[in-house]
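Subject: Interface between my chains keeps coming out wrong

I've been trying for a while to get a sensible model of this assembly. When I model each chain on its own everything looks fine, but I need the whole thing in one frame so I can look at the contacts. Pasting all components below, labels as-is. Any help appreciated, I'm running out of ideas.
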Amino acid sequence: MVFQKSIQLPLFSRGFHLITDHVLSELPKVSGIVQVFIQHTSASLTINENADPTVRMDFETFFNNLVLEDNPSFLHTYEGPDDMTSHIKSSLLGSSVSFPIKNGAPNWGIWQGVYLCEHRNTPRRRNLFITVIGE
Amino acid sequence: MVFQKSIQLPLFSRGFHLITDHVLSELPKVSGIVQVFIQHTSASLTINENADPTVRMDFETFFNNLVLEDNPSFLHTYEGPDDMTSHIKSSLLGSSVSFPIKNGAPNWGIWQGVYLCEHRNTPRRRNLFITVIGE
Amino acid sequence: MVFQKSIQLPLFSRGFHLITDHVLSELPKVSGIVQVFIQHTSASLTINENADPTVRMDFETFFNNLVLEDNPSFLHTYEGPDDMTSHIKSSLLGSSVSFPIKNGAPNWGIWQGVYLCEHRNTPRRRNLFITVIGE
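Reply #2:
Try treating it as a single job with all components included. I did that and got this:
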């Protein structure tokens, strides 16, 4: 069975945000694999700790220091200093997450959740496309 | 066909370790996609070189320098200096690997294998969940 | 339905290159998930911006600065200064990309495409293995 659904997230500010509920509420009652794909190249998805907000704040701090906005070498800066850095963060973290599902529930650890990683300064409409392959 | 199986790895020390045999021994004789998912947020999985132990040592060296434990900006440090850094390394490398399978054998390059990336100082029980979709 | 196909890319120089057409021309007219897997550990795949060549140039600049070739700590340097660094870049970016497909067309954003990330100095034959699970 192939299940596919497009969802639009509410607006999120720059940073790392838990969107687990937005994803889980869409899943059919099957067992197999879930793929959540983000249809953008300046925001990304990752799976990480689902409880303490400071984890998501530290993620933002770390990635801002890893991919510096004042890098004079960057050529692709049409849309401002958060343009090229967003593309790079997006590939470091990834455009999709994939996890196992069993009878409609994620078969992951109790501390795991899905993050939207919004790398742009201005909140944007972000579309996810969910595919579940299962039986 | 959907095949799902949970496995528990033996204890591994901090660092990068080949766990290819632990994964391959569980695969059914089908053709399709294998997903190996780690049910934790302070250890991760990646696919890389399967022969020379110094590759895995250099991975540990590189990631320790990339994600410094004495970063005074980190807020999430309840469990020690290897706490937040482990979450970050986990998202840089990823919580799952996925590779093609043909008649029960991985269809990857001759130099490829699966690494467990253990980011915590103290060895912990790590559970993997394997899903194979194939026919 | 499981569809599997091996393809060999033309030679690409060190850097980031759009290979979207090479991938899309192989896809069957189904709906489901596409996995593109690279059978090497010194080149990688990612999904990012598909229009402006300076994005790919900035990627090369960024990753060369992130993973320095003159790192005296590296032990695995048999094949030159671009040996170990290629393995690390490969795991930071990933050995596969996965995206949704609907009626044979990628269900991604209008600005998304697939990059081959060639990390070695000398162009090499790179083999991809494409698996599509769909119906």
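Reply #3:
Confirming on my end. Chain A has one domain: 2-134.
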